Amino acid sequence: MNGLAAFGLWAQKNRWVWSAIGVLLLWLVLSVVTNRFSLSSLSGIMLSASFLTVVGIGQMFVVTTGRGNIDLSVASVITLSAFVALLTIKGQDANLAIGVSATILLGLAVGGLNSLLVVGLNIPAIIATLATGYVLATATLLSNRAIAGFAVSPLLKTLATGRIAGVPIMAAIAIVGVAATSFVLRYTVFGQLLSAVGQNRTAARLAAIRNNRVIASAFIISSVLASLNGLLLGAYIGGAFLEMGQPYLLQSIAAVVLGGTLIFGGSASAVGTLFASILLILIVTTMQIVGLPPGAQDIVQGIVVIFVLALAGRQVLSRRAADDDRTLESEPNAAAVRRE
Question: What is the spatial distance between Cα 244 and Cα 334, in angstroms, rounded to a whole number?
Fold first, then answer.
C-alpha cells in the first residue's frame, strides 16, 4: 500500500483533516494575496470562530442522532438569551450568577420543548425546531421592548473579548469545550449510545438502548450551548439586537457537515467542527475582502453546504451499495452452510 492510499484510509476515519487542510490552504492564499494576514489576524479569526464552534458543537449532537435531525431554533435561542442576560445581569458582576442561571434555564426549557415535540409527538425535527424558533422570536420582540439600555458585566466582557498572552480567552474556552466533547464522544457511555442511535435506531432499541432519552439529551445540549453562546456573544458585541443569532443558523449546520460529522447520523467529529468553523470564518473574510454583499455571502455559504451534502450523500450511497454487494456474496455461502 503506497502513502497516498494509506492517507486515504486514514482520512476516512479522520474526516476532520479535510477542513484542516482547507484552513491551511485558504490561509496561505490570503496571506500571499493580501500581505496582511499574520498570527495576530489569525487570533482574531479564532475569536470569531469560537462563537460558531460553541453553537456548532450543540448542533453536532443533534445531527449525530440521525434521520436528518437539525436544530433550527439555535438562532432564536442565541438572540433571546442575549436579551435575557442583559435584562437579568444589568451590567453588574453581582448579578452574573443570576444571568447565567437564567440563560441556562432558557436553554433547558427550549431543549425540553424541542424534545417533547420531536420525541413525544413524533414531529420531524426540522418542523418542530422551526416552530419553536418562531415562538422564541415573539419572546425576543417583547424582551426588546422591555430593555432600557445596554450594559455588560465587566467580568463577562473580559471572558468574551479578553486575551491571555495574546490568545483570546474565548478561543481557549472553545478549544477546551472541543476537547471535552471529543472525550465524551470517544470514551463515555453516552457517546457510544449517541453513535449507536444515529447509526441504527432499531438495532439500538433491540440492544435495550433508550433512544428517546439519547435524542432528547442531544436537543437539550444543543439549546443550552446556543443559550450560553448568546450570553457570551452579547457581551462580545456589547448588547443585543434582533436577528443577531441568524448568521449562526446556516453556519452551524455548515460547520458540522464540513467538519466531517455524517449528516445521516452515527458519527461525529468535534475537532472537525472547530476546523470547519475556522474555515467558514476565513471564507466569510475572503468574501468581505472581495467586496461581496451580505446576500451574496449567504448564497456562497449555501452552495458550499449543498456541495458537501451532495458529496456526503454519494459516500453513503456507495457504502450502502458495497454493503449490499457483500450481503449478496454471503448469501450463497449461507445457503451452502444450511444445505450441509
Answer: 59
Query: In angstroms, rounded to a whole number, what is the distance separating the alpha carbons of residues 140 and 250?
Result: 20
C-alpha 171/C-alpha 336 separation (Å) is 60
Say if residues 167 and 44 touch (Cβ distance below 8 Å): no
pLDDT category at 217 given cuts 50, 70, 90 is very high
User: Torsion over CA of 318, 322, 323 and 327, rounded to 10 degrees?
Assistant: 150
Count other C-beta atoms under 10 Å from residue 317's C-beta: 10
pLDDT of residue 109: 97
How far apart (Å, rounded) are the C-alpha atoms in residues 127 and 35? 46
Handedness of CA 178, 132, 72, 81 (dihedral sign): negative
| Mode of pairing for the β-strands spanning 167-168 and 163-164 | antiparallel
- Around Cβ 203, how many Cβ atoms within 10 Å? 11
Residue 43, amino acid: S
The SS3 call for residue 239 is: coil
pLDDT in tens, 224-248: 999 999 999 999 998 888 889 998 9
CA dihedral of 183, 186, 192, 198, whole degrees rounded to 10: 100
User: What's the CA gap between 306 and 299, in Å, rounded?
Assistant: 10
- Separation of alpha carbons 153 and 159, rounded Å: 10
* Range of weakest confidence among 28-32, 63-67, 97-101, 172-176: 28-32
Spatial neighbors of 245 by CB under 8 A, at least 6 apart, are 74, 75, 76, 77, 78, 79, 82, 226, 230, 233
Phi, psi torsion values for 271, nearest 5 degrees? -60, -40
Q: Using one digit for the tens of pLDDT, what is the confidence trace for 128-160?
A: 999 999 999 999 998 888 776 678 889 999 999
Instruction: Let me know if 281 is exposed, middle or buried by CB neighbors in 10 A (0-12, 13-18, 19+).
Output: buried
